[in-house]
Amino acid sequence: METTDSLIEANTRFYRAFELFDIEEMNELWDKELAVTCIHPGWPLIQGRSEILQSWINIFNNTMVMQFTITESSIKIEGEWGWIVCTESLRSVVNGKVNEGRVEATNIFRRVKNQWYLVHHHGSPIIN
Amino acid sequence: METTDSLIEANTRFYRAFELFDIEEMNELWDKELAVTCIHPGWPLIQGRSEILQSWINIFNNTMVMQFTITESSIKIEGEWGWIVCTESLRSVVNGKVNEGRVEATNIFRRVKNQWYLVHHHGSPIIN
Question: ipTM score here?
Fold first, then answer.
């Protein structure tokens, strides 16, 4: 198992882009060559880069505040692939309504020229 | 990208064990060496082999019927790791109540001696 620092950094960068509603950074973070997939909490699967970016635009347009605390539970790297299982403790304001809660996430990255790119994001709400 | 048939077969075997409430097969399917993680739909993260198996026992004890139709959206293999993103169309009877719905899943496997073992299962309900 090689060092996981760069993978954790990429994961942190992803949540930072979300907090800042930074669509350019989000665009930069997703893999540009492979088929990418995204499951937002409670949503059906989204396939395709442009469809995923549009979903982020929609989320950013409807969210006033988003703050994350991320706790990584599992981090693995194999070749040019890496994945992180983490818990997002979040506070958000969506359509004027304050939400506090936790989301479980699986984030899968691929490394290209020493840079990690998201290939798959899966977030799920904790309901029980 | 090598053939993905064996990975799909392992994934199918996982859902078959779920349908049959086969805890011995479920025990066999999960990786015995690595730290394993599991997120059932709406649940918080479960870490550890025995904790995960106990969760399956609890689910099996409370479920009368479980039927899946699985649609794979993304399948990738890198070295001894493989992962599948799939949609579970399911019909279940839990505590006497019939449920029909869809769950998005990310399943990550590791191969040991030509056999795929689950290292991470993440299912999330489609709410919207």
Answer: 0.91
